[in-house]
Amino acid sequence: MMKNLKDILHFEEEKLRELLSLLDKQYKLIINKDIFGMEAVVEEIKLQNREVAEAEVERRKFLGNVSIGDYIKNSKNEDLDNCYRSIKKLLNEMVLQKDTNELLIRQQLGFTNKILNIINPKKDAATYNSYGNIRR
User: Fold this and answer.
1) Are the C-beta atoms of 94 and 19 separated by less than 8 Å?
2) Which domain holds residue 104?
3) pLDDT tens figures, 76-123
4) Residues in Cβ contact with 113 at an 8 Å cutoff, skipping those fewer than 6 apart
5) How far apart are CA 134 and CA 3, in angstroms?
């Protein structure tokens, strides 16, 4: 029974590592401002997310209603514990990379919007409201 769970966890860890490498690839594309490459990597990330979800479903089928943390604590198996810790560390790295990518994209979109507003300003005449503030 332990052997099967180890195999499932190693498979899940492998899929998570592949997803992290795709997030790193996305980061490099964002930095290089390669929009078409970013569009292509989004599809790859979606496919990898599906594979990670399938691995997780397989793990949940194996464990049933038992939480993996509780199962590993009760099993007192060092290999399972190490694999579980490795997966948790990997997940934290992925969250950090995803947040970084998201922040960079938001910054670049904000910059692009400001440039567009400078190039093509609004043609509306500014009017004042009853408080003396400019209404836009």
Assistant:
1) yes
2) 2-119
3) 888 888 999 999 999 999 999 999 999 999 999 999 888 988 888 777
4) none
5) 70
Q: How many CB atoms lie within 10 A of CB 130?
A: 6
Q: What is the CATH number of the domain that holds 7?
A: 1.20.58.300
Residue type, 88: K
Phi, psi angles (nearest 5°) of residue 121: -70, 160
CA pair distance 105, 23, nearest whole angstrom: 13
Whole-angstrom Cα distance, residue 48 to residue 63? 23
**In-domain check, residue 59:** yes
Residue 73: inside a domain, yes or no?
yes
* Total residues belonging to the chain: 136
Across 69-78, b (16+ Cβ under 10 Å) vs e yields eebbeeeeee
Q: How far apart are CA 88 and CA 128, in angstroms?
A: 56
Report the Cα 43 to chain-centroid distance in Å. 13
Q: What is the pTM of this model?
A: 0.79
Q: Which is nearest to 81 in space by CA: 93, 90, 72?
A: 72
**5, 62 contact by CB (below 8 A):** yes
